[in-house]
Write a structure and sequence with these properties.
about 280 residues, mainly alpha, MetI-like fold, 12 helices, globular, disordered C terminus
Length: about 280
């Protein structure tokens, strides 16, 4: 049914207004990152970009040690993504296909773990991490990031796999495939949409995670979410808002690129009920 022109026009106007409200802070951060510090507080305010400069990015690279933050973020995020996307697929397959009381209790426990605030477990977890020598290490932070991604990823995989007909695996088993072989050759190729969607969601989650690195790192491990807090002040009273805006842009850029690369599979991953037996 075709929408009336007046209703369509109102909908478009509303969409444009909402889009402007959402994108205005992003535009302002990008503009500020290319604006000289002295021009940020001009009166009247200059809303259009003029006298653009890369000084804020140079200051960020020189003062904050940007290379170390990029290295730490790439290593921890890549490891966490690999573990969450592939190991949680196995867990989701087990929860979807093996239905018994013990499995259901384990699945309920995973669901319950998402309801526990991180602040409740931070003190005993910090104590355990220090005793195990994992505090302020890449391996320790990777385990924490991976544990953060497990519940959501497992639940998503279980819901997606439950919609795939078991007859596909049964046919592979009849042809001589093992259970793991049926999973890798039959089920895994069908999980590409949900894998792409989870990769995007988990990537953004890892990139934006602030509480875990704040509490479990000191100086050896650095990630991008702590970059803004590490930029030194210009003086006792003045913050380097240009460099802080540049750091914000560097955090936005990977997420945008990741979404652009996997955009074709996002809708397929979200429409989990499209496959029916």
């Amino acid at each position: 049914m075709k929408m009336p022109k007046r209703k369509s026009a109102v909908l478009w106007i509303f969409t444009i207004i909402v889009g402007f409200i959402i994108m205005w802070p992003v535009y302002w951060i990008v503009k500020s990152s290319f604006t000289k510090q002295i021009d940020l507080f001009k009166s009247p305010i200059e809303y259009m970009p003029v006298n653009l400069t890369l000084d804020n990015y140079r200051q960020l690279m020189d003062a904050a040690g940007l290379t170390d933050y990029l290295k730490g973020t790439i290593l921890i995020t890549a490891a966490s993504l690999f573990l969450s996307v592939f190991l949680c697929a196995l867990a989701g397959y087990g929860f979807a296909r093996c239905q018994n009381k013990a499995i259901n209790i384990a699945f309920a426990f995973i669901m319950f773990s998402t309801m526990i605030p991180g602040t409740v477990t931070v003190i005993p977890l910090m104590t355990m991490w220090r005793r195990m020598g994992l505090s302020d290490t890449f391996s320790g932070l990777t385990i924490l990031y991976f544990s953060l991604l497990i519940p959501f990823s497992t639940v998503m995989y279980a819901g997606f796999i439950s919609q795939i007909p078991p007859s596909l695996e049964e046919a592979a088993r009849i042809d001589g495939a093992t259970m793991f072989g049926a999973f890798t050759k039959v089920i895994l190729p069908l999980l590409k949409p949900i894998m792409a969607t989870l990769s995007i969601i988990n990537f953004i989650t890892c990139l934006n995670e602030f509480f875990i690195p704040l509490m479990f790192t000191t100086k050896n491990v650095k990630v991008m979410s702590l970059l803004m807090s590490s930029i030194p002040k210009l003086n006792q009273y003045q913050m380097p808002w240009g460099a802080i805006s540049a750091a914000g842009c560097l955090m936005l850029l990977p997420a945008i690129l990741f979404i652009v690369i996997f955009e074709k599979n996002i809708m397929g991953g979200l429409m989990m009920g499209s496959i029916k037996q």
